[in-house]
Amino acid sequence: MSSKYKILVIEDENNIRNFIETILNANDYQTLPAASYEQGLLMYASHTPDLVMLDLGLPDKDGIEFIRFIRKTDATPIIVLSARTGESDKIEALDLGANDYITKPFGTGELLARVRATLRNNRPGMSAGSLPGEKFSLYDLIIDYDRRMVFIGEEEIKLTQTEYNILALLSYHTGKVMTYAAIIKEIWGSSDDGSIKKLQVNMANIRKKLGSKPGDNQYIINELGVGYRMNEENI
Ligand code: CA
């Protein structure tokens, strides 16, 4: 399986989409092209990209609606491609959970810088300053940050991207209580009434996948009403 990052490019102007694809492909990213909101949504659902580049002015629907729809369930990073001069669209996009925006026309260097930064900031273990090749271990739990893989002993534990991101975030802050709000802000970027519930559901899945029984605090300590804490060995 290819380990290249998959980037969905939703843009109806062919020359701009081709320009973005050419740059990204030349820099070892895999691209998925879409020319409309509906096409973008289909590609998103069938390919689960690592990053979405999103034009706001799409022919069939406002790109803002794509952000609104995706953010109901997913933390997949989104960079908005904006030709608009008004700041309100950008602020609205960011408030709805877009990770960054880039204003047209843009150059190669700027595009690549935004993509790199956005992907890096969505790998909590890396963005927090860990070194390439570094691994986290706690008892028989191992997190391989470079490969975004988790093991218990020899067995690989299959986590969703969001579950992995939560676990990696906690591991970097090992031993420290992270509040619901802090985790939610790091993982989803913004919060709403359902955020704590969403976090709790993800956490329950993580604990189940790690083989923890209710009340078992071997890896992750549930600080009731406050947040979660990655355990430390020997304390
Ligand atoms: Ca457009």
Q: Would you mind describing this structure in some detail?
A:
The chain has 235 residues and is an alpha/beta fold. The protein has helices at 14-26, 37-47, 63-70, 87-95, 108-121, 124-127, 161-172, 180-188, 195-209; strands at 6-10, 30-34, 51-55, 78-82, 100-103, 135-138, 141-144, 149-152, 155-157, 177-179, 220-223, 227-230. A 5-stranded parallel beta sheet has the order 2-1-3-4-5, with helices on both faces. A hairpin with a 2-residue loop joins strand 8 (149-152) and strand 9 (155-157). The radius of gyration is 19 Å and the shape is globular. The chain starts with 5 loop residues before the first strand and ends in a 5-residue tail after the last strand. Bound molecules: calcium ion.
